[in-house]
């Protein structure tokens, strides 16, 4: 599958089929080229913009079926299926990438119909075995593959250091005594979810667990809560987002944005709590302004 709005993938030169060597490091003061393996959503676009501001060279490989940059962005330098591991590695190596970040939303693949190249076929049993142990094991397996190929894997937060959730309130409102018990209950629930590798979020109001985050993601979870609380007139409760204790944070850090604030408001919640220093906030100023306009708190807590 190819996107007509993006540049075609260049044929990898014969040097890409040479024995594996470590990717090049910074030379003569030049920054190491960053390779972005891009899924869907806004995060890959923000990473590219950050690299441009920093004067850092960057190459983007979009994952077909997940990444969907708009034509005016045109950020993808090449495209590959998540199962075409050899093609992804070849594109990154041919571009001279020394560091790799995996960013954006990627649907869990259907291994029975996944498009594979030879490298993907060889890795499939290992990846399937990891996937059967949960998403965190699957992500750790993917990190190991890139590291074994000589790339250094980094987290989006290392590039977007100004997008990390700070401790305390983002906007005018902070936590109130009314939500203290709900927060304690939500922490208990999310930490339990993390131990069994289920999700990173939960919604609690007046002591009731209204929803836990699973495969559908935060936005759809909040939409379910909005349906459940249709006609509710009083704001109560909160959304909590925390990373799992064993989580591979370089590839799966919790994320919130303006849509999260709007979803929490539609669900009748009083606010959002997230892990300070371990949650990415897409457009911090925009999130704070939208939360203030809707009368919600957005608060970072240290764990």
Written account of the structure:
The chain is α/β, with parallel strands linked by helices. The chain has two domains: 143 residues, Rossmann fold (3-Layer(aba) Sandwich); 138 residues, 3-Layer(aba) Sandwich (Cytidine Deaminase, domain 2), CATH 3.40.140. Helices cover 34% and strands 18% of the residues. α3 runs antiparallel to α4, α7 runs parallel beside α8 and α8 runs parallel beside α9. The longest helix has 16 residues. The relative contact order is 0.12. The N terminus is likely disordered.
Mean pLDDT figure = 84
- What's the helical proportion of residues? 25-40%
Which segments are poorly predicted (pLDDT under 50) over 5 or more consecutive residues?
1-29
**CATH fold descriptor of the largest domain:** Rossmann fold
Number of domains: 2
The largest β sheet comes out as: 6 strands, mixed
**Secondary-structure content class:** alpha/beta
Number of helices: 9
Corresponding CATH architecture of the largest domain? 3-Layer(aba) Sandwich
- Alpha-carbon Rg, integer: 20 Å
Strand percentage, roughly?
15-25%
Q: Tell how many strands the DSSP assignment holds.
A: 13
Shape designation: globular
Order of helices and strands: EHEEHEHHEHEHEEHEEHEEHE
| Measured distance between first and last alpha carbons | 42 Å
The CATH C-level class name of the largest domain? Alpha Beta
Query: What assembly state would you assign to the polypeptide chains in this entry?
Result: single chain
Strands of the widest sheet, in order across it, are: 6-13-11-9-7-8
């Amino acid at each position: 599958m190819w996107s007509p709005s993006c540049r075609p993938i260049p044929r990898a030169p014969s040097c890409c089929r040479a024995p594996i060597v470590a990717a090049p490091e910074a030379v003569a003061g030049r920054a190491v080229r960053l390779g972005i393996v891009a899924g869907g959503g806004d995060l890959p676009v923000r990473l590219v913009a950050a690299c441009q501001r920093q004067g850092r060279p960057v190459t983007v490989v979009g994952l077909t079926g997940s990444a969907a940059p708009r034509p005016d962005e045109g950020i993808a330098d090449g495209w590959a299926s998540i199962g075409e591991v050899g093609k992804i590695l070849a594109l990154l190596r041919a571009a001279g990438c020394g560091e790799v970040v995996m960013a954006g939303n990627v649907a869990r693949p259907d291994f029975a119909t996944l498009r594979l190249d030879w490298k993907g076929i060889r890795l499939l049993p290992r990846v399937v075995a990891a996937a059967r142990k949960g998403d965190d094991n699957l992500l750790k397996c993917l990190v190991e593959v890139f590291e074994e190929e000589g790339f250094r894997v980094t987290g989006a937060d290392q590039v977007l250091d100004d997008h990390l959730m700070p401790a305390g309130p983002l906007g005018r409102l902070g936590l109130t005594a009314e939500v203290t018990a709900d927060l304690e209950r939500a922490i208990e629930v999310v930490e339990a979810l993390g131990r069994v590798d289920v999700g990173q979020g939960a919604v609690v109001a007046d002591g009731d667990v209204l929803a836990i985050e699973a495969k559908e993601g935060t936005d759809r979870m909040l939409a379910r809560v909005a349906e459940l609380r249709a006609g509710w007139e009083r704001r109560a409760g909160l959304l909590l987002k925390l990373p799992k204790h064993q989580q591979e944070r370089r590839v799966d850090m919790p994320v919130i944005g303006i849509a999260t604030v709007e979803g929490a408001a539609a669900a009748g919640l009083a606010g959002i709590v997230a892990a300070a220093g371990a949650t990415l906030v897409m457009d911090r100023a925009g999130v704070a302004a939208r939360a203030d306009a809707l009368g919600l708190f957005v608060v970072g807590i240290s764990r």
